[in-house]
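User: Here's a protein and a ligand (pyridoxal-5'-phosphate). What would the complex look like?
Assistant: Let me lay out the input and then the predicted complex.
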Amino acid sequence: MQRSKSKAIYDRACGVIPGGVNSPVRSFRHLRMAPLIVESGKGGRIWDVDGHSYIDFCCSWGALILGHAHPAVIRGASEQMQKGTSFGIATEIELDMASRVVHLMPSIEKIRFVSSGTEAGMTAMRLARGVTERPKIVKFTGHYHGHSDALLIQAGSGAMKINPLATSKGVNPNTIADTICLPFNDFEAVRSLFRSEEGARIAGVILEPVTGNMGVVLPEDGFLECLRELTARNGSLLIFDEVITGFRLGIRGAQGLYGIDPDLTCLGKVIGGGFPVAAVGGKAKFLDHLAPLGSVYQAGTLSGNPVAMRGGLETLAILEKEGFYEELHRKAEAMTAPLRHALRNKNGCLQQAGSMFNLFFGVKKVRCKEDLKQLDEEMFIRFFHYLFERGIYISPSSHEAWFMTAAHTDVEIATAVGTMIEFIEKYV
Ligand SMILES: Cc1ncc(COP(=O)(O)O)c(C=O)c1O
């Protein structure tokens, strides 16, 4: 495959951008190849600067639930741009967007918009500490809540693989001294922590209710209920990081699917329709601790940016249409059912929650980060190359979710499945 322009751009980028990329996992170093340099996208496809097209199952790490360059999103955002791109002053469209989310997600009574999931996680954590006046935050190993210092410990996603020191180097040990990490799905670890002396010092528990950052890992039956009960009894806040799952698993996210009412919710990705929007929402009695009403400080020049709000509003309007998620899940199933079948007697598995899923090679089940130690990394690298060379792009890591969008056609899905099964039958 001729990729001379991509390689030349990457080489030049390495001279002026660390590692040639603005987010580590884009570099493909762990895949031992030059990264994809993308030029454009439309629907379920992207085109690189060398003119190759790829069916895209990463879709901006799950942000693009409608696929690339959806006409309604582009039209809305372009209209908004004519009126000005940023004011740093309150606008009515922020109210429209906030009202929409409050209407759609019952646990959210008030919401504050920010520009990245990192800010959302950081703000949720600060809010939990401010509200409870307690120091400790509990998180789970392999879960990723952005790159703020106190949450960058035993994190998933790119922080897990690219450079194992990235979760600790430069992070002051004092900053993470109050972050407690537990294994996901470990009921006893959580219960004994809450029973211990530390229990009274726990401000909040933050988690990805369905994890996307160590591949798709589901909560075991009763685990979310257990966290809800323990935090409520203990006066700690339960924080659902739904940056991936919010508006992805359904219009009410993972909390709707599992029937759990968290105190705070982090949103991102889908909510911005491909623009930089994220948010922290929740019970009014907690959100009202934020400045200017309360003394928990949070701010942002581009927070609630009107162009980004419009992109989000246009996206939500489509997600709300009857049958949207049924059709999305039908497409996901069309991809996952044959793959699961192909893997039944192989050393690998497929894990899925609705339109997010991925293959793991070397294991039959992943329920926590520990299980990832068994992953067959070499098999994944081979698989990635095989697909890439045949015009299929999946999330470039052995433990990241892939995403179905409403824009993928049945033909694109069938092409991808056929190629994947060919690989599985030949090599796994
Ligand atoms: C669950 C989760 N939380 C937070 C973040 C951080 O979001 P951002 O990359 O927008 O800072 C991510 C990013 O992938 C995520 O998956």
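Summary: Confidence is low (pLDDT under 50) at residues 161-166.
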